[in-house]
Amino acid sequence: MLTPRWRLILGLGLSGLLLTTISKAETIGEVSTVFKLVGANDKIVVEAFDDPDVANITCYLSRAKRGGIKGSLGLAEDTSDASIACRQVGPVIVPPAIKSGKNDGEQVFKKRTSVLFKTMQVVRFYDPKRHVIIYLTYSDKLIEGSPKNSISAVPILPWTTATTSQP
Q: Per DSSP, which regions of 15-161 are E strands?
């Protein structure tokens, strides 16, 4: 029989797993960084996701992914190293809820980076003075977070389509 403390820990871990299935990222590519004799190599993975609330902003994440036997089975804990670059890819209209600042710090992406307790997250902020959307990526654990982080700023500019023909 599980104690109430372990039920809480297990419940939080399972709810974290369920939440991570909501966010989807498209794998763009990967490079091996450490050769492993058994199991997959350690690698850096590049993924892309679109902001779910602001059309025509795409973010690109690079993150470390452990290999080996544990990594191949999905049991390894990835490091907290990540980088983000977000770009305007079409005409953007900032929704009123974001413009007002009410949604500052809202989570727009979440990825599980260990079996139960560690995630990589991306949150969004809006700078009304400069008309810029800022994305912050960081890693956290249930017990202890990580100071490692990366940001990307997307100035919202008028969007024009090219009328010249491509070579």
A: 26-34, 42-50, 57-65, 82-88, 106-112, 118-127, 132-141, 149-155
Q: What tens digit of pLDDT does each residue of 23-43 get?
A: 488 999 988 887 767 777 788
One-letter amino acid for residue 60 of the chain: Y
Residue 79: Cβ-neighbour burial (10 angstroms; 0-12, 13-18, 19+): middle
What element of type H or E holds 5?
Answer: helix 4-20
User: Half-sphere exposure of 154 toward its Cβ, with a 13 Å CA cutoff?
Assistant: 28
- Residue whose tokens read 């100035």: 155
**Which residues in 106-124 are b (16+ Cβ under 10 Å) and which e?**
eebbbbbbbebbbbbbbbb
Convert the pLDDT of each residue in 133-149 to its tens digit. Answer: 999 998 886 566 677 88
pTM, 2 dp: 0.72
